[in-house]
Amino acid sequence: MKGPLVVIGMLSVALGVTLTLLVQRAPAAALAVGGVDVASTSREAACTCDGGECVQGRCVMSGACSRDSDCDDGLPCTAEWCVAGACTGGHRSGACELKDADAGVCEFGFCERPTGSGCVTDLDCAPSANACLERACLSGACTQGSRAPGSDCATALGRPGTCDQGACLASPDSERRLRFTLPTAEVTKLERDLETRLANNLRYDMKAVLVALHGGGYNLVLHNRRSRAEVRGLCDPSFVAFDLADYTAATNWKSAHLQVWLEPDRAGWSVPTRGSRFAVDQGRADSALGAFGVVNVRTFRLWLERAFIPLDDAPSSRTPRSDLEAPHVVPPLPPKPDAGPTTVGFVDAGPPPALSGRQALSRAWDAFGDGRMEEARRLVRVARAQGARDSELEDLLTP
Q: What is the model's pTM?
């Protein structure tokens, strides 16, 4: 049989080490000579790149964005662009889609349920996704107001902050918390570490870039250095997501999305890093040897399919959006009139009941999924006061 022969096996063991066996017999034309890829020499000669690296004829900078999609944080109510190698952007205005597919409205970077609906008690008003806003039933309508200035909150991307007139302003990083900004020297080292890991574990030759997002945190953007006409250029994004799931789980800095470009400006895929971690966890849970770290590949891929999305074949920049949210403030809620207990029919409803332990844990998971860590921790404390515990969620929320 002529041509390359590839045998691949993957095992993720309990110690968090991914063992990957990749045996290949490649044609001589695909081999590197003296560390130089002979097959790609003519392709790279057509590229000029000052301070970056030519990848399949395209200039890719280190520690910087090169296209708008590099800056995408995946949130429906934010807009981002790449300007001179740095991500910038703001909050969108207008409509958005909530997780349950209901119609929402963008405010302060969060997708919110509209206010103004009828109500009898505060429990009839859906809580805000923004920890700096609170809702109450006033005069039979759900009304929104801002929490006290200086209250703890988390931005839409999950960065800790403090409230200011309805907006959550990001706080400087704390060494005890997940870091959202890194020194340039550390970014450079992490990029090289990622390239070495992928080469050792998967035999993939990829250019790794950590792109600092506008709201804090980083996208992991990977560019395939090899043509897919070569064996080492046959990169599978799901293998990359699998290999980096445990890696991102162990880091003390915020990773948002993993982007894998198989060819420049085309054939790109993106997945939230927490989505790849969740898919691996589900694969282990469905494996008879899951306690030893072995993953059921079919289950892993089924869950990964729900999170992976194709990247647009877009140019490196586009016209800034005109639908950004105008600066505004939200005043606090007015005091409620002291009208005594509310009567509904013949039943004296009295004050709104406290959340049950189960309700608090359910809302804590929702807050965790939205990146509102401080709110999730508050709800876990409420649940524990009611005698309800969820050790998995508590472990995830431990700083």
A: 0.71
DSSP 232: G
Residue in the structure block whose two tokens are 């060494």? 175
CB 158 within 8 A of CB 377: no
370-375: long-range contacts (C-beta < 8 A, 24 or more apart)?
Answer: 370/129, 370/156, 371/154, 371/155, 371/156, 371/157, 371/158, 372/129, 372/131, 372/153, 372/154, 372/158, 373/154, 373/158, 373/160, 373/397, 374/131, 374/152, 374/153, 374/154, 374/160, 375/131, 375/153, 375/154
**CA 290 – CA 174 distance, rounded (Å):** 35
- Nearest CA to 254 out of 111, 350, 373 is that of 373
Residue with tokens 């000579």: 33
Q: Where are the domains of the chain?
A: 57-85+179-310, 93-171, 354-399
The answer, yes or no, to whether residue 2 has pLDDT greater than 50, is: no
Give 184's contacts (C-beta < 8 A, 6+ positions apart): 63
DSSP code per residue over 123-138: GGSPPPSSTTEEEEEE
Token duo for residue 293: 């770290």
Mean residue pLDDT across the chain: 80
pLDDT value of residue 352: 44
Cα–Cα distance measured from residue 255 to residue 266, given in angstroms and rounded to the nearest whole number:
23
